[in-house]
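Posted in: Protein Modeling Q&A

I'm a second-year student putting together a small comparison for a lab meeting, and my supervisor asked me to include a predicted structure for DUF4307 domain-containing protein. I've never done this before, so apologies if this is the wrong subforum. The sequence is pasted below exactly as I got it from our records. If anyone can share the structure token output, I'd also love a short note on what stands out.
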Amino acid sequence: MSTTPSTRVPERRYGPSSDRNADRTLKIVGAVLGALLLLLVGYFAYHYVGQNKISAQVIAFQAQDDAVSVHLEVHKDAGTSGYCTVRSQAADGSEVGRADFRFTGSATRVDKVVTLRTTARGTTAELLGCHAD
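Accepted answer (user: helix_wrangler)
Welcome! Here is the predicted structure, written out as tokens:
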């Protein structure tokens, strides 16, 4: 029988293992970075969702040769004014029209059909976003 020599150093002879210290440091750094990332995501989420006072959606659209009628439903805070940007694309994906539509007044819900003029027949109506003034 042969015995293989041990590659481990004798305990307590050379002091505490540096691996334990490195592991502890990495855990602390990871926890701090994780907390900072969580705070950053929360900050951006609050400002994107909490500060956006206008939201909208396209209910329906109807395309003609030189225009697209778009039915928009807009939800906003009372007294807030702003605008929504709508665009239309042709069948090949090229943009044929883009316009901003303004919404003012004290109503919190606006249901409106707007007409987007196009340079060619549009096949889509896409809401790009809404912004408060």
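A couple of things worth pointing out for your meeting: Residues 68 and 110 are 19 Å apart (CA to CA). The chain has two domains: 16-51, 54-132.
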